[in-house]
Design brief:
By secondary structure, the chain is α+β, with helices and mostly antiparallel strands. Helices cover 38% and strands 29% of the residues. It contains 4 helices and 6 strands. The longest helix is centred in the N-terminal third of the chain and has 18 residues.
Length: 140
């Protein structure tokens, strides 16, 4: 039986993205560290997330990794009792003051050079009530 390598790679990429978006690939912190150590782009994304100040009222819960053929990303998950909109506003004020631009008016996605950031509700990706700050780095 001959396996088409292109189809196999595509299926692997789809499975990886489904796991990242659906939360089924819950890596331990040690496994995430190993992924980061092996990937220059994940190292850049992780460094970016570490540099972004944490708004008041957020408690760090953990990280998730993901990506595709054009970018690698890491999500920092925070628990909070604050409304997600207030947390997004805090991030927007910090990011605009540091040279970041919104991808489009009203968007929760930001860009600065090859870096991308997004602020989303955490329960969609982690089961935690709060927010996830996703930092990614474009490979090309």
């Amino acid at each position: 039986m001959v396996i088409n390598l292109e189809k196999q790679c595509f299926c692997g990429l789809c499975l990886f993205l489904i796991c990242f978006c659906g939360g089924c690939c819950n890596y331990t912190e040690a496994e995430i560290e190993q992924w980061i150590e092996r990937s220059d782009t994940l190292q850049k994304a992780d460094s970016l997330c570490k540099e972004i100040p944490i708004p008041r009222g957020l408690t760090f819960v953990g990280r998730k990794i993901g990506g595709n053929s054009s970018k690698s990303g890491i999500g920092y998950i925070f628990k909070t009792d604050r409304p997600v909109g207030d947390v997004r506003d805090d991030y927007m004020h910090m990011l605009f003051g540091d040279g970041w631009e919104q991808d489009e008016e009203g968007s929760d996605h930001f860009r600065k050079g090859k870096f991308r950031l997004s602020v989303d509700r955490a329960e969609y990706t982690s089961g935690v009530e709060g927010v996830v700050l996703t930092c990614s780095f474009l490979k090309n």
